[in-house]
Design a protein that fits this description.
The chain has 72 residues and is mainly alpha-helical. It is 64% helix and 0% strand. It has three helices and no strands. The radius of gyration is 15 Å and the shape is globular. Keywords: Signal.
Length: 72
């Protein structure tokens, strides 16, 4: 693997790790929490970025069951 590809994979891993470990819902006075639709979008995005296909399938199904559509 060349250096450029390696750097991209490291950056992708760090971004996915940070995204998956963020506390997206802050119930303090910092603003409104994410609604269910937004929570599913964040989860699907982070699983896609991480390449976690095993959990992505179930998360996509759950998102579709709760009202997400393929277009948005």
């Amino acid at each position: 693997m060349n250096k450029n590809k390696f750097t991209k994979w490291i950056l992708l891993f760090v971004l996915a790790f940070i995204t998956m470990n963020m506390n997206a819902q802050n119930t303090g006075n910092d603003g409104p929490a994410l609604n269910t639709r937004q929570q599913h979008i964040v989860a699907i995005s982070s699983l896609t970025a991480a390449g976690n296909l095993d959990n992505l399938k179930s998360c996509l199904n759950t998102g579709l069951d709760t009202g997400l559509t393929i277009t948005r």
